Amino acid sequence: MTKNLERRLVGEGLGTALLLAAVVGSGIMAERLSGGNAALALLGNTLPTGAILAVLILIFAPLSGAHFNPAVSIAFALRRALPWSEAAAYAAAQIIGGAIGVWAAHLMFELPVWQVSQHLRSGPGQWLGEFIATFGLLLTIIGCATRASAALPYAVGLYITSAYWFTASTSFANPAVTIARSISDTFAGIDPSAAPAFIAAQIVGMSAAVGLAHWLWPSAPAAVFEKTIVGADQAGVTKRSGVRPP
Amino acid sequence: MTKNLERRLVGEGLGTALLLAAVVGSGIMAERLSGGNAALALLGNTLPTGAILAVLILIFAPLSGAHFNPAVSIAFALRRALPWSEAAAYAAAQIIGGAIGVWAAHLMFELPVWQVSQHLRSGPGQWLGEFIATFGLLLTIIGCATRASAALPYAVGLYITSAYWFTASTSFANPAVTIARSISDTFAGIDPSAAPAFIAAQIVGMSAAVGLAHWLWPSAPAAVFEKTIVGADQAGVTKRSGVRPP
Amino acid sequence: MTKNLERRLVGEGLGTALLLAAVVGSGIMAERLSGGNAALALLGNTLPTGAILAVLILIFAPLSGAHFNPAVSIAFALRRALPWSEAAAYAAAQIIGGAIGVWAAHLMFELPVWQVSQHLRSGPGQWLGEFIATFGLLLTIIGCATRASAALPYAVGLYITSAYWFTASTSFANPAVTIARSISDTFAGIDPSAAPAFIAAQIVGMSAAVGLAHWLWPSAPAAVFEKTIVGADQAGVTKRSGVRPP
Amino acid sequence: MTKNLERRLVGEGLGTALLLAAVVGSGIMAERLSGGNAALALLGNTLPTGAILAVLILIFAPLSGAHFNPAVSIAFALRRALPWSEAAAYAAAQIIGGAIGVWAAHLMFELPVWQVSQHLRSGPGQWLGEFIATFGLLLTIIGCATRASAALPYAVGLYITSAYWFTASTSFANPAVTIARSISDTFAGIDPSAAPAFIAAQIVGMSAAVGLAHWLWPSAPAAVFEKTIVGADQAGVTKRSGVRPP
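Output (structure tokens, whole complex):
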């Protein structure tokens, strides 16, 4: 096991748990308070989500890279900035953390812990939405990491704040988030039967962004990428474990 | 063709496409959800637009300058920071990208792809609004580029967030955006017959800002300007292509 | 006339004009769209005001200091960072600019240019509000200028965003803004008969903040203060004109 | 008494007073204006609170550390970055300042100064909310202090903006704030009988975060921590007073 991996996995799991507690918890609060006005409910779900994302990336980026998203970890593996074995461990930590976060939200709002969403989200418009949402998210991450890494936490928070409103699917853009939201029958939920198509669209959108970024920023040194996103602690580690620049 | 121009044009086109997908997409979402309350609808259109602008400038400024706006590209050409031939190519990429973004929004929300707006926006108040909106936008860009270039992405996002509310026209401030919004019969649309006057007011506002900025900040070195706004990649290029400081 | 003063006065006047266009313009827009819900109207007035303040300070701080507020210019004079004659010229430019901004807003929204507000804002609670609002604003400016000057534009924008809601007077905190808002019979207006008490409370609040700041941060070097707030251009000028550190 | 402590205590007291004036004042304003829509009222309470927190930390962090929160001062004492005697003095200043801020808000809105809240906030869901809210707040502070200290003011403001919505208790996360809000029978109030359980949950959440942070970031040098959070002025002082790195 690579040095430091245990702490990094706790970082990914804990960060994803807090992210999901915010997504699902603010969805419950917003729906309860908004008196049936869906725009107010989405606003009360959007601002807390964008804000907590920026905070969590500020906290955890220097430790684990603050992916909180299997699509991001896979993108790093594709760019050879993270070993595939670690990307798999990251994804597992993210999925487990996401579920814990959802259950914490249910406990806080005194709802049954175990739920399954019945909120059907489907159709080509929503799948295109997930493709565009994830494509834009990865473009944001890789684009900022290359040249404006200090702005990355804010950029991701602002991106999701925007994408919640401009995509027909309200921008899940994250397989771990999609799985976690399938076990919450609240405002933010998604019926488990609708999840696989969402995740497929996310993976396609991520792949398109990784390919385009490779062409758009050919000279981006992987070392810089690793250092700013996978985290300063991690940079030395991946170098030692033989990861090469793309 | 100047070195690197192809990638820069893709950056301008893609950035403008994502901007318009956000403007039109969030307009559709906000109108659908807001239950007839126009203030909520405009809020749900404003926040995503301001947020995505900051993100897109963070991503693309080091590559293409992140103009996404023919008025901005013309201003750079007037300041001799961009060759006129490249400004023309930029404008074409922005207009094409804008149309693609609108169509992507229509597809996401499962609306007919091809639409023509019937939303009349006209009259001296709105034209003055477009003059002021574009004047302020260019003042923001040139003012920040000169002395606070790291803040530019946030400044532009915040400026548009504000201008959506304080101008009677809700601040198009961009000929490519005006053209793109004329082919969407949704919340953000503008009847094509109203577009020429909007664009004329924008060009006059831009010209006034360029002239005033020349007097306000006479010592601003064009080299700094190029480096921070046209992008680090581009600085060497324009120097080689014989562009002189104003 | 001190070197550069002409451009600095244009900066103060233009910045205050844009600030008032945003305050009054967004107030008109917000009231028109909010369907009678006062919280939505205030929100649609708050966000554009806070956002434009940050932008205008980013643009004009390196030129004129971006005061846009006679209370701020007087505070600088009290701290011997600005000659009293220049503070007076600044105040005149701010008052003239503010009026122009209000008239521009009226023109944009096709209202009569010349108006007098009938919106009575009075009573000890509102006066205490103006005292606290201006006290906090000056504490923000002096506190940030001393140690976190790059954050100042955002700090002032965020401060006003907050103070619009937590003071009973909705935080005018600025004599030029108070005068300008007295000539607009719209959402943001204030009856001229109520203005003198507001301005008096603002001056008292400013004085209290200047006194307290002198005790709280005794070692703050005036040179740093001048450089970051009065503007880099100005620092050399005031030194030559014999302004001494407090 | 350690050098400089007097000014630092005034900083803590004044900052906490302004924080509570914002929390309680914006709560009153938001409830009055929102026409019975609870989501709008919470939004009008959230944005001013998050914004003023960022501002107050920008202003006071270099002086006193800008804790405004006994849980934060105790955490610093546990990490041996603040002597226990000073932590106690900080807590006293925060509690006194908080009460003054609440009374200022009552005076501004012309309400009786002395009030006792009758707003019962209780139950395991709310206590878990306070545990999670304070745990996340301390993780934000310690995580950012270690590696991204310039972002700390924004991170704390964004964190509270989010936590107001995702915790069932609307995130008090602060014993001084809890006590202060118990003496205001307005939107933000809490019945005094409910306060002890809130405070207990906050202390447990704080302790959990301090323990976890010790394991997550073992190499974080206390010196850096002191310098960025307790304030540059304070760093020399605590060194002289014999505080050792944890």
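The CA atoms of residues 30 and 44 of chain D lie 5 Å apart.
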